[in-house]
Every structure is written in structure tokens, then in C-alpha cells.
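Review form for a predicted model. The reviewer records the input and the model, then writes brief findings.
Reviewer: anonymous (R2)
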Amino acid sequence: MSAFLQKLLGRGNNKGADTSTLGVQYAKPKGVEVRITDLNKSFNGHHVLKNINLVVKPNETFAIIGPSGTGKSVLLKHLVKLIEPDSGSIHINGVDILKNVDKKASYRCSMVFQTSALFNSLSVGENVGLWLRENRICPETRIRAIIQEKLRLVGLAGKENLRTSEISGGMKKRVAIARSLAVNPDLILYDEPTAELDPVTSDELARVMKSLRQELDFTTIIVSHDLNFALYLSDRVAMINQDGIVEVGTPEEIKKSENPVVRNFIYTTTKGLKGE
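Model under review:
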């Protein structure tokens, strides 16, 4: 597995793990707090992230919405340290992750890619179990049981032998979620999960993601331009535009916002919300 994919599927390297350390290496997930303070990032003179300040509570489902090109996905990449900011800090459970680069993380983070990023040469089950096998987390019999359980959680029980090249786009998204769940993440990041999905398939995905909240404890951050999807799933929502964070609130607070920038984004003829 490439270092890039290793980093995004699950933080840390557990090579050589044995069953005696399984409880530590593969503990049940526990939601973490994410605190972003005065984060700035520019590319070639273009100021993409401007003084971003956000706090995501443990076990919260938090969505970041906004127009295309406003740095939503760039912000996620900072959380997995694929991008370093020009200034600012990111604390997860009180630890500055940008300064503690050599220190082993005390949490597990995984990411669901916009494109799913599955390996077509592998079966559904092989994709889900990839991190577990690469890092020798537990014996093969246990890995197979974990694969079956994670597929059950996303509504794909018994589908582990299917080829990923033969399944639909919606199923690929759910396999990608199951693969991220195999890490037992404390923090799971979704980058535009409904990209390239039709409305019916997006609704199915939303129901799957919502059901996970009832069974598992982890913090969720969703980046999406799909307004209804974000409002349906989230405890709180932040809207971002080219000037930074515009407003943060519950879905109801966002829908009732009097901020003209927020209202202009959410009350349009194409997003499904209708103004008074």
C-alpha cells in the first residue's frame, strides 16, 4: 500500500502487531474533539483558507458546506496532515497535531474519498480488510469476521466476494465507508460523499451513515456541497466561502439564518430549500 493511502485509511503503523496487543491497537472507537484555530493557507498567491476557527465536539457529526472552490476539501487534508498551513493550529483531543509530527497519535483517523479510491483488482472484502492485513492487526480469522461486520454495518452483508469493478457507484461508496470503519476510527472524514450519485442513491447513503451513529461512537466531519444531505445528517453545520467561515449552527439555525450570504446559498431553486 502506498504511504499516501496508508495515511488516509488509518493513522499509525502497527506492523508486527500480535493478539496480545490487540486490545490497545484495535480498541473500540471513542470520539475526539477537533479544534481549528486561525488556520490560513494560500496556493500561488491565492488565499484559500482565511482565519478558519472551528470546534467539533466529541461524537458530533459536523458538516462543512459552501460553494465549490472555497477550500472545503483543502481543510480536510490539513486534518490528515497531507497539507501544512501557512499559519494556525489544529488540536485533536488537546494535542497540536502540526507540532507533534513525530509523536504517535493517540487516536485513529480514517477518510472516505470523494472517488471511493477502491482497488478494482481486489474483491469487496479484500478492500475492506486491506489496512488490517497490511498492518497485521490480528489473525486472519479475526480479520474475516471484522470484514463481515463492517459490511453488515453499511448494508452489504454477504457481499465480500464481489469484485469492486462490477458494483454500482453507490455500493462503492458503502464499501469505502466499510474500509474506513475497519480502522475503528475515532475520527472519520467524508470528502463529498454524494459526488457522482443520483438523488435516490444519495438518500440510501445518508440512511447508512445515519445508522452508523446509532451503533458506533466516533466524531464525523463531512465536507459537502449537497445541502440537504448535510442538513439531514449533521448535529451542526458550518458554512464557508471565499472569506472564511460565515456561520456555524444547528441545521435549524442555518435554515433560519438571516445572514444574506447563508440565505443566498441555501435558498435557491436547485438545492431543494424554498424561501418564504
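Findings: Confidence is low (pLDDT under 50) at residues 1-24.
Further findings: DSSP finds eleven helices and ten strands in the chain.
Recommendation: see findings above.
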